[in-house]
Amino acid sequence: MLGRASSTDADSRELAERLAALREAIRTEDPVGESIAEAAWAAAVPSGDTGTLKTAQSESAWAICGLALLSRCEEFADATGYERWVERRSWLEQAAGDTESPVIHFWRCAAELAFRFVTGKTDPAQLDQMVEALKRAGTVDPEDWIRAARVTLGHMNLQQVLGAVDHLSTLVGASRQYAQCHPAEQSKWNYTSGYSRYFVQDFEGARRLWQLAAELAEAARFGSLAVMAKVAMARLDIEHNEMASAGKLLREVQKDLGTRSALAQVNAYHLAARIALRNDQPQEALQHLQAGAAAMQWAGIPVGRWLLLQAEFAHAYIALGRYSDARAAVANSSGGFTTRYGECLAQMAMAMEMEREGDMGYVDALRDALGIAQQMNLRSMLRSLPRQTAWVCARALEHDIQSSFVQSVVLTRQLIAPVDAPPQWPWRVWQRLLGGYELHCDGEILANTGKAASKPQELLKLLAVSGDNGLTADTAADALWPDAENLAAARKNLEVTLTRARKLLASAGEGMLLMADGRVRFDAQFCGSDAALLQRLCDQAEAMANRFGQSGASAARLVDLARRMAGVYRGELLPGEADTPWLLSARQSLRNAYLRASLAVAGVLMRSPDMVLGGASAAEHAAALLEIAIEREPLAEQGYLALMQCYMQLGRHAEAMHTYRRCRDALSIRLGIKPSAAMDALKAKLVA
Fold first, then answer.
1. Mean pLDDT by 10 residues, the chain (688 residues)
2. Residue 449 — φ and ψ, nearest 5°?
3. How is 345-391 classified by DSSP, letter by letter?
């Protein structure tokens, strides 16, 4: 029966027609074409016995099997949908024997590559075999050739085997096979090739290819692919903060969306969610994602088959502070690449939750997450959440976790520094003012350039301790030239000095110093200082301590803030410099801020002195914090008083008495006064 059915001209024509129908079904938005694929298979192998297939029959059977598997790479499908085609591929391998047919060789490679693509089983060597098979397969249908090339390129992108991208793009783009293809297939090629350009940072090249893909798809009335190409362009716009352009593309793809394929619909909903997240609308983003999941469910596609949707769910939950839900969203990922990506997101969500609860274990969770991200070169981590990404990067740099990689993430994505970003952040301009002075521009320390640079540097120091809003021009001029004949003369000096200061910072780029609405300031996105960081940490710690019990903050989180404060406060503000009025005022302001924050945090800790935090009791943490506070502000009696109380809680009476004597000596020598009645009362308790 097999021989008769396969040998007549009628049967050959029937098989050719069914192969053509299968190709058409795959081309025209029916990527599975399952009933047609089964009919074509039955015509080629009616008995199911592959052992007696002739070469011609085997070539047709391999083409059907390969087309079915390749189609699975274009749309999501249930795992059972390709399992029987994988099994048939094994049958064909036995039937093919040692044949040297270029067509069979081509389809062997294509089927194997498709199998590895849908199962996530990596084999970089298979990519080279596919490229060679493409070169040899001159008699293969041009659209099959392009289809296999797209899967090859997609597999390369997935595995980041980028060295062959240009070679394969040239091989296809300049080929006669490409010119012979239907516009729909040409559109698909350009769409896939656009991603190959994107992955090698050629964003303009990617946009051109996606634009061409959209135009070809619209001309071919292949609306779903036009949607996907526009979604790709919109995502690129979002990455470059061109939100207006992204929004316009979203409105275009939302037209008649219900008539598009499930894949196109899900891509559109995913884009809408990403835009909502960038606009700080996480609840709206979650609604879009739920609509995308419903579209997949309606199409019979398991939601867990698409990592991007899972990742975006995780992003939305993170933005809402629902960290457990974020981890659950990526918990069921499948495939090696997918599992690692999901694990990275889960660890980041865990780190954020632990930090919120004051659990210092967040550092280890961050280390695990960024270890995965670095291995995968995943600079796009938390792509829809730049603010949260900046937090991750700031904490990682503070704890020296994958520092080089993290700094590259900051620079590549142009992240805005969080208010408590540490000195290790890749600031364009950074000034160290505590315990000495250093001016860093783009990572390089600028040496003092002598008298000509003294006033520009003084202006930079003044602005560094003046807060994000800077100073009015009049205030800055009066502070730097208090002896000027009049304010107009001082303002003129300021203009000249501002020009010189900008030249001093020229290596960091333009726009570091801003003058607008009568105020002069640094651009806080690119410029920072340890003094400004310390002030922010003190304000944060004081506010958190004063609201303790109401804000949900934990004692461990307060201890972490205190640790960070102490780490930044390495010495007096600009020691050894002339005691100008503005500098004396800034020094005292910073000391007072540190003292207030230290007393507020210590007060919280001393209410639960026996609580263990990081291997030490709360009272021990309070004592360490207060020791630094009185070192920074040696005439503040309230610091000594709190420290005495703390040592008494710990039962360390000798140290409490020593603290009293330190206070008495400091007040007597520096101010000529005696300790207060409260101090004397504590002393009396000690000697009683």
1. 45 80 70 72 72 73 82 58 77 70 81 74 70 72 79 64 57 72 85 82 90 92 89 92 92 85 85 94 95 82 69 94 93 58 92 86 94 89 92 95 94 89 92 92 70 76 90 92 88 92 88 89 91 93 86 77 90 89 92 94 90 85 92 91 93 93 92 91 87
2. -95, 15
3. HHHHHHHHHHHHTT-TTHHHHHHHHHHHHHHHT-TTTTTT-HHHHHH
